[in-house]
Predict the 3D structure of the following.
Amino acid sequence: MRVAVLMGGNSAEREVSLETGKAIAGALRELGHQVLEVDAGTDLPLQLSAGKPDVAFLALHGRGGEDGCVQGLLEVMRIPYTGCGVLASAVTMDKVVTKELLSYHGVPVAGGVVASRGSDLDAVADTVAGELSYPVMVKPASEGSSIAVTEVGEPSGLRDALELVFDCDERALVERYVHGRLLTVGILGNEPRVLPVLEIKPREGFYDYRAKYEPGFTEYEVPAAISPPLAEAARDMSLTSFQVLGCEGISRVDIMLEHGTDELVVLEINTIPGMTETSLIPKAATAAGMSFEEVVAEVLEGARLKVSLAGDD
Ligand SMILES: Nc1ncnc2c1ncn2[C@@H]1O[C@H](COP(=O)(O)OP(=O)(O)O)[C@@H](O)[C@H]1O
Ligand SMILES: [Mg+2]
């Protein structure tokens, strides 16, 4: 098959996406496919028209690529593509909307306050003081890779953390800080297959940009050393989240396991998770006996157009 791997683009996660794209392209070649590596800039429609791929494999992270924009273009161009469709991509890119939908379906999420660029920050601080206790987590509604995510220990730090978010996003989420262990659950294929729970153990602090991408700052354990009922609950909760948000093909659900209460809280869903050989989904897949190439093959197999139009046969 002729497969275009879409990577790069113009999001804040461009560099990470290029790594993911190169790893996927390598695996696809191993599998015997003809691969076009496409840097998804503003000339993407031209590149796709010229390259005439049978299918697009999405390796884009963040806005413009993981949020439904490119998925919409591929629907218009009638090029089948991997992963989630337009709606699920757009919803999961927005942590505020994601949490509202998950709560509606009974999936536990961390309580929080939403603030918009231009809102009165003193009023926001009052609302936060009334509804949450410090520390709190401040993050953009629609970024990834822990960009502009800050743990704020006391009220005096809130303004700077919000301003950092407003440099890159319209809305900020101030969340209850969940003290506990960070887990992640990968889901693959259109069946779908739920991978073993992986625990992420940053050496210090939370799982920030450095802990994510610099070797040695984080340890990983898969399967996570948690009780079988908790692991089952985390996997069930992940599958429910995947289904109620309309995800397909591949996604990864980030969950906190709270100390003391053993409560599980969903933080977010990543619909185009990192896919270098050392990324989390490949690690969890290895624990389930799947190679990197098998993961890539399974995601590719699920590729399709999600919107049927008059004139399709
Ligand atoms: N409410 C929270 N309580 C405690 N830690 C959090 C909370 N929200 C996020 N974190 C930490 O910050 C990291 C990044 O946050 P996340 O919501 O997953 O955003 P991103 O899309 O940038 O990965 C998480 O992996 C976790 O370590
Ligand atoms: Mg995350």
Q: What stands out?
A: The chain has eleven helices and 13 strands.
